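Consider the tokenized backbone below.
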């Protein structure tokens, strides 16, 4: 039997978190749409294409924003309880801090499950579909479902890439070039390819090129070859799994950040109203949430760059904020 106060807490916290999450999603969707406006009007890319694209990447935004929304929503709900002296009544009725914390963790288990579902099952296919939609809208064509690797249509060229490395460099590049009558003009094969900027394009290394000149062919070996293409590392990066999300530790640790955020919100609920109004505490929660988001991204990137143990890169931000929550709770209990 679930206690009455737990049902009351869960109802208020779920409503607050949902409201905060919707507000963040609306804000980020607006920014994403503004970012897409630069491409609207190019290659048949229309405003409704951009709007659909932004809508399709929202599951990924839910995954990224869930811990922050949980922190701010829980903090707002608990601060409201404190302002109405409801937490004081609960504590006077014999509710210990430990029981209160376990009640919050039980409520937070729903957010853990939702974060895992979005991160593992909804966001990846939605992001792939969004990118395919964007490429189709701009009259590009990309397929990565074939055993032969990634296939790209680049104007009159069809490009096959055997593999794309995490730094978006290419291995095993083969370029088939056709003329306006759809006749094969040349085939270029390169061992590797590196993008050198929008102006320079791709620089292919160790190139073997075969040109079809009417009734004869010409073969030559080139140390490098510049390939100008609309295919950019940004396009390749969204066709790949983000490196930090590939870590099993990352997949396991990130959903549980919601529980850490709820533990971090509890000390604010125990503070009296005279120690700061609701708006001040919610602002503090926003700053803490932004700090967690930045720290999480920082350790993910540092872990990839420096070759850290995946568990260290994935767990350190949550451990740091868990220790901060324990310190704050100890300080509040002492007062």
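A designed sequence for it:
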């Amino acid at each position: 039997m679930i206690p009455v106060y737990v049902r009351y807490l869960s109802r208020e916290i779920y409503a607050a978190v949902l409201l905060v999450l919707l507000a963040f999603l609306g804000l980020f969707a607006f920014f994403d749409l503004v970012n897409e406006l630069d491409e609207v009007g190019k290659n048949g890319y229309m405003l409704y294409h951009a709007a659909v694209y932004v809508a399709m990447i929202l599951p990924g935004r839910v995954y990224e924003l869930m811990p922050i929304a949980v922190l701010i929503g829980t903090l707002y709900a608990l601060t409201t309880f404190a302002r109405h002296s409801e937490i004081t009544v609960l504590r006077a009725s014999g509710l210990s801090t430990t029981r209160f914390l376990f009640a919050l963790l039980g409520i937070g288990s729903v957010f853990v499950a939702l974060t895992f579902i979005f991160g593992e099952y909804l966001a990846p296919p939605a992001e792939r579909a969004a990118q395919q939609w964007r490429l189709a809208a701009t009259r590009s064509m990309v397929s990565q479902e074939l055993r032969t690797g990634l296939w790209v249509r680049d104007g009159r060229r069809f490009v096959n890439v055997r593999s794309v490395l995490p730094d978006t460099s290419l291995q095993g590049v083969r370029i088939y070039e056709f003329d306006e009558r759809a006749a094969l003009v040349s085939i270029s094969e390169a061992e590797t390819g590196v993008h050198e900027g929008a102006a320079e394009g791709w620089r292919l290394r160790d190139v073997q090129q075969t040109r079809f000149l009417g009734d004869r062919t010409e073969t030559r070996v080139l140390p490098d070859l510049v390939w100008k293409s609309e295919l950019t590392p940004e396009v390749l990066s969204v066709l790949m799994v983000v490196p930090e999300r590939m870590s099993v530790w990352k997949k396991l640790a990130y959903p549980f950040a919601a529980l850490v955020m709820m533990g971090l919100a509890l000390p604010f609920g125990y503070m009296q109203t005279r120690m700061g109004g609701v708006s001040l505490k919610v602002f503090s929660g926003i700053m803490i949430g932004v700090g967690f988001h930045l720290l999480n991204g920082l350790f993910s990137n540092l872990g990839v760059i420096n070759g850290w143990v995946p568990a260290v890169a994935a767990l350190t931000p949550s451990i740091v904020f868990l220790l901060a929550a324990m310190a704050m709770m100890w300080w509040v209990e002492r007062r």
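Residues 241-246 have pLDDT under 50 and may be disordered.
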